[in-house]
């Protein structure tokens, strides 16, 4: 077992990882399909390993919104990475935590002895979410196909009402709307802002801080897990392009509320960005670490998944991380560093408020009182999704990978990566540095 790692039975190590730059959607399809991003990031990662792609036992890729021509994107990318026909590749989907689910699935297979070396991660190219025809328009096309003569087709065309039938359905908006409660994810965050009295200034301050942290981390070289990607025209993308060096409270005050235009406080600026990106981790058993003489970044200690009211899905980290910590006899301040995915500034602030709210902790978590607080200098120290971006399928993998790098550079031991999940879920992983 590598020196410096605590015992675990059986241990699962993260030996390396890489991600693409996270590229903000720019009013149209981005330069990369999801499979392109996953392939380029994965290729750079595998090229620096002492083992060959064919030595992997499996490839697991989380993706919330693959394109129609990327069916089972995990297998597709595994083949493009040169893993060969015999290495299974498969896809998982747990909405915002798809990348984290891929890691958890890899852990399960390693712990059961089914695998020793796994490539796991997540990807999404949200800029390529499709425009859809309405059901009325689909039925119109179906009826057209049933017309046998030119005359009948002509008469059918006379029934076409462009304003009613040709208005597209935005696939991304459908995907970001909870089908059970009928709320956009931003509307569920508005619920948290109202519940805990979070005002617009607090949200905007959080968003500005996220950008400033990300800019500072970039200048310090703290995003070493990013590998450049190259588009079909030869253009190189080396950094997350949604981070704003000019972020300020004056600028944050300009956008109007997006999700609740009359009473809301959440804007596009204090929300995570619509983004394209991929992130990968190499996970290994103790036997694989020894066989290939790998040098782990750290290990996954435990995982927790939780469910809650879909209308308050942003509190998922509270419901997942709390029992995870309790299982190990830990409190919030026993964790050296946190990565809490920034779906919305209000959502992160809501989680922090919930942990400090004695009534919420008693009624919803079964605790005797407030659980505690997280120090600002331990939370998302290099910014988060508000500044970096949130390619839904990739974010869960990104925060686990980056957290391990944060622990290593600060010579810290323990961290928690946690994420809210559309549909009323939360996920959390407890990790330790090696």
Description of the structure:
The protein is α+β, with helices and mostly antiparallel strands. It has a domain at 13-129 and 273-433: Peroxisomal Thiolase, Chain A, domain 1. It has helices at residues 34-47, 73-80, 98-111, 135-145, 150-158, 162-165, 171-175, 185-196, 200-220, 249-252, 286-292, 316-327, 345-356, 358-365, 385-388, 392-409, and strands at residues 13-19, 23-24, 58-62, 89-92, 117-125, 131-132, 169-170, 229-230, 236-237, 275-284, 298-307, 337-340, 414-421, 425-433. The strands form 3 sheets. Strands 1, 2, 3, 4, 5, 10, 11, 12, 13 and 14 form a 10-stranded mixed beta sheet that branches. Strands 6-7 form a two-stranded antiparallel sheet. A hairpin with a 3-residue loop joins strand 13 (414-421) and strand 14. Mean pLDDT is 93; it is low at 1-8.
CATH architecture of the domain at 13-129 and 273-433: 3-Layer(aba) Sandwich
What is the number of strand segments?
Answer: 14
Cα distance, first to last residue? 10 Å
Q: Tell me roughly what share of residues is in helical segments.
A: 25-40%
Q: What's the main sheet like?
A: 10 strands, mixed
Integer average pLDDT = 93
**Sequence stretches where pLDDT stays below 50 over 5 or more residues:** 1-8
Question: What structural category characterises the helix and strand content?
Answer: alpha+beta
Tally of alpha and pi helices: 16
Strand fraction: 15-25%
CATH superfamily of the domain at 13-129 and 273-433: Thiolase/Chalcone synthase
Shape: globular
């Amino acid at each position: 077992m590598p020196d410096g790692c605590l015992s675990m039975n059986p241990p699962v190590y993260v030996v390396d990882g890489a991600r693409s730059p996270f590229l903000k959607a720019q009013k149209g399809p981005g330069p990369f399909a999801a499979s392109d991003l996953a392939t380029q990031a994965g290729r750079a990662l595998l090229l620096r390993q002492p083992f060959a792609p064919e030595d992997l036992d499996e490839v697991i890729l989380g993706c919330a919104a693959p394109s129609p021509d990327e069916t089972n994107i995990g297998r597709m990318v595994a083949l493009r990475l040169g893993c060969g026909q015999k290495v299974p590749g498969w896809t998982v989907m747990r909405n915002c935590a798809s990348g984290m689910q891929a890691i958890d699935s890899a852990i399960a297979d390693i712990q059961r002895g089914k695998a020793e070396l796994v490539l796991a991660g997540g990807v999404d190219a949200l800029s390529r979410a499709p425009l859809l025809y309405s059901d009325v328009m689909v039925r119109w096309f179906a009826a057209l196909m049933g017309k046998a003569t030119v005359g009948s087709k002509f008469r059918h065309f006379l029934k076409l009402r462009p304003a009613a039938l040709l208005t597209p359905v935005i696939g991304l908006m459908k995907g970001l709307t909870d089908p059970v409660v009928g709320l956009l994810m931003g509307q569920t965050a508005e619920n948290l802002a109202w519940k805990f009295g979070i005002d617009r200034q607090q949200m905007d301050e959080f968003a500005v801080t996220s950008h400033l942290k990300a800019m500072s981390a970039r200048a310090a070289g703290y995003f070493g897990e990013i590998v450049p990607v190259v588009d079909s025209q030869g253009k190189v993308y080396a950094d997350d392009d949604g981070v704003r060096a000019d972020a300020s409270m004056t600028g944050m005050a300009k956008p109007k509320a997006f999700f609740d235009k009359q009473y809301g406080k959440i804007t596009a600026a204090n929300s995570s960005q619509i983004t394209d990106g991929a992130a990968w981790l190499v996970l290994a058993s103790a036997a694989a670490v020894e066989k290939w003489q790998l040098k782990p970044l750290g290990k996954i200690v435990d995982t927790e998944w939780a469910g809650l009211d879909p209308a308050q899905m942003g509190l998922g980290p509270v419901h997942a991380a709390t029992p995870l910590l309790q299982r190990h006899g830990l409190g919030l301040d026993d964790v050296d560093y946190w990565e809490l995915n920034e779906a919305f500034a209000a959502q992160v602030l809501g989680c922090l408020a919930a942990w400090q709210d004695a009534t919420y902790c008693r009624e919803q978590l079964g605790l005797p009182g407030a659980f505690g607080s997280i120090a600002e200098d331990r939370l998302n120290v290099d910014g988060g999704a508000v500044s970096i971006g949130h390619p839904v399928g990739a974010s869960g993998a990104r925060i686990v990978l980056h957290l391990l790098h944060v622990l290593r550079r600060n010579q810290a031991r323990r961290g928690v990566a946690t994420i809210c999940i559309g549909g009323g879920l939360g996920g959390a992983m407890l990790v330790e540095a090696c």
